[in-house]
Design goal:
CATH topology: Growth Hormone, Chain: A
Number of strands: 0
Structural class: mainly alpha
CATH superfamily: MFS general substrate transporter like domains
Number of helices: 15
Strand content: under 5%
Radius of gyration: 20 Å
CATH class: Mainly Alpha
Length: 450
C-alpha cells in the first residue's frame, strides 16, 4: 500500500507544481512531458517487475525501486533547467514503475480471491489519501515560493518505504516469475511511448501523424513478439477482445488515457483561466481521486447483477463529466469544474475494482502473476499515450504559442471534448464485455479462452 502511495503522492505533487516549474525554468511546449516521461520509464520497469521479482524477490525489487525513485526526486529538486527536470522525472518513473507493479503482484500473491476486491478497494483508498497529501505538499511549497521543496518533502516517505520493504517483504523469488527480462521488447515499448511523446512537439502536421503511426506500430510489434515468446512479460492475448483479460485491458487503457487529461491540464486551466492558487487548484483536481476512492469502497462488496450494473453504468458518468468539463472549464465556475471532475472519479471508482478483480479471476493457469503485473503497465501506457495525445491536441489548439488565458481556454476545452469521446468508446467496450462474457463474478473457472 505504501508503494501505491509513493506513486500517487508524487504524481499529484508533479501535476500541482508543473505550472510553477515552467514559469520558473521555462519549457511551456514541454509541459506535458513531465507526465509522459515519468510514465514512459514507469512502463519499462513495471513491465519487467514480474520477471525481476521472480529472480531477486519482492524485497530487493521494491527496495531498489524505492532507491531509484529517491534519486529521481532529488534530481527534480536540484534541476536548473527543464531538460534536467524532465530527466529527473524519467528516473523517478523507473523506481515508481517497480513499486506500483509490485503493489498489485503482492495483492495477487498474498490474498485469496474473495478478499482481492476489498484489497483493491484499499489500494484505491491509498490513492485517495495521496490525492489529499500531494496537492497539500505541492501547493504549500508554491505558496512559500519553492516548488523544489515539494520534491524534498517526499524524501522522508521514500526513506520509510525503503526501510519497510527491506524489513518485511518476502525475500525469495517465485517460480512463476523466473523468466528473463526481455530488453528488446522493453526497448520497443519505450520507443513507442517516446514517439508518441515527441509527436506533440514537432512542427509539421505530417511529422506528427507519422510519429503517432510509428508509436502504434511499435506497440503492436511489442505485444506481438511478446505473445510468441516463451518468456512473456504480459499475459496471452493481452489486448485481444477475444477474452476477458484482453477486453478489460482495453477498457483500463482508455480509462487511464482519458482521466489523465484532468491531472495534466486542469491545474493549469484552473490557475490561468479562473485565477486559483496552486493549492486550491490541486485540491479541486484531487476530487477525482477522492470520489474514485469513495465509489470503490461503496461498491467493493457488491456481487452478481449489482456488480454487472456498475460495470455497465459506471463509464457513462465520466462521459457526461468530461463533456461538461469541456464547456465549464471556459464558461463555468471553479466549483462547477470541481463537481464535474468529481463525477469522472466517481464513475470510474464504482466499476474499476470489479474490472480488475474480474481480470485476475479470469487469468490463464500459470499466468496469474503476469496478469496482475501487466495491469499497471497497461494503465501506465494509457496515461503515457493519454498525456501525449492531450499534449498534441493542446499544442495544435494553440498552447505551444505560449500560456495565455486564450490559448489555455482553447486547448483545455478541445482536450476534454476528445477525452469524452475516448470514454464513450470505453463504455461501448464494457457493454460488449458484459454481453459476451456475463457478469463479473461468473468467470470463476480459468480457461485458455480467457
Amino acid at each position: 500500500m505504501l508503494g501505491a502511495a509513493l506513486a500517487g503522492v508524487h504524481i499529484f505533487i508533479a501535476s500541482t507544481v508543473m505550472p510553477a516549474v515552467v514559469m520558473d525554468i521555462g519549457g511551456e511546449a514541454y509541459y506535458a512531458w513531465g507526465t509522459s516521461l515519468y510514465m514512459l520509464s514507469s512502463i519499462v520497469t513495471s513491465a519487467s517487475a514480474g520477471a525481476l521479482q521472480g529472480r531477486i524477490g519482492a524485497r530487493a525489487t521494491s527496495t531498489w525501486g524505492g532507491v531509484v525513485f529517491l534519486v529521481g526526486s532529488l534530481g527534480c529538486a536540484l534541476a536548473p533547467n527543464i531538460a534536467l527536470f524532465l530527466f529527473g522525472r524519467a528516473v523517478q518513473g523507473l523506481g515508481g514503475g517497480l513499486v506500483l507493479a509490485m503493489s498489485l503482484v503482492l495483492i495477487w500473491q498474498l490474498f485469496p480471491d474473495h478478499l482481492r476486491t476489498r484489497m483493491l478497494a484499499l489500494n484505491s483508498g491509498v490513492w485517495g489519501l495521496a490525492a489529499l497529501v500531494g496537492p497539500l505538499i505541492g501547493g504549500g511549497m508554491i505558496a512559500l515560493h519553492s516548488w523544489r521543496g515539494a520534491f524534498w518533502l517526499g524524501v522522508p516517505l521514500l526513506l520509510l518505504f525503503i526501510a519497510l520493504a527491506t524489513r518485511y517483504l518476502p525475500g525469495r523469488g517465485t517460480a512463476s516469475g523466473r523468466g528473463r527480462i526481455a530488453l528488446r521488447r522493453l526497448a520497443l515499448l519505450a520507443a513507442s511511448v517516446l514517439a508518441a511523446t515527441v509527436a506533440g512537439n514537432v512542427p509539421a502536421p505530417w511529422q506528427r501523424i507519422g510519429l503517432v503511426i510509428l508509436a502504434v506500430l511499435l506497440a503492436v510489434m511489442t505485444f506481438s513478439r511478446d505473445g510468441a515468446s516463451a518468456d512473456k512479460m504480459f499475459p496471452s492475448q493481452v489486448l485481444s477482445n477475444a477474452g476477458v483479460v484482453g477486453s478489460i485491458n482495453q477498457i483500463l487503457f482508455l480509462f487511464s488515457a482519458t482521466h489523465t487529461t484532468i491531472g495534466v491540464f486542469a491545474p493549469l486551466a484552473l490557475q490561468v483561466i479562473h485565477g486559483l492558487d496552486a493549492l486550491t487548484a490541486g485540491y479541486f483536481v484531487s476530487t477525482l481521486s477522492l470520489c474514485w476512492t469513495g465509489g470503490t469502497f461503496i461498491t467493493a462488496s457488491w456481487r452478481g447483477s449489482a456488480a454487472a450494473t456498475v460495470v455497465a453504468l459506471g463509464p457513462l458518468i465520466p462521459v457526461a463529466g468530461l463533456a461538461g468539463l469541456s464547456y465549464a472549464i471556459v464558461h463555468g465556475t471553479p466549483l462547477q469544474c470541481a463537481a464535474l471532475i468529481a463525477s469522472v472519479g466517481l464513475g470510474l471508482g464504482i466499476c474499476n475494482a470489479h474490472l480488475v478483480a474480474w481480470s485476475l479471476r479470469s487469468a490463464r493457469s500459470g499466468e496469474e502473476a503476469l496478469t496482475a503485473g501487466g495491469i499497471p503497465t497497461i494503465r501506465l501506457l494509457g496515461v503515457a499515450f493519454g498525456a501525449s495525445g492531450a499534449g498534441i491536441i493542446a499544442n495544435l489548439a494553440g498552447l505551444a504559442e505560449g500560456i495565455t488565458v486564450a490559448t489555455v481556454e482553447q486547448a483545455t476545452a478541445t482536450v476534454y471534448l476528445a477525452a469524452a469521446l475516448g470514454m464513450a468508446a470505453a463504455t461501448a467496450m464494457a457493454w460488449r464485455l458484459l454481453w459476451r462474457f456475463g457478469r463479473p463474478d461468473a468467470a470463476l473457472v480459468r480457461s485458455g479462452g480467457t
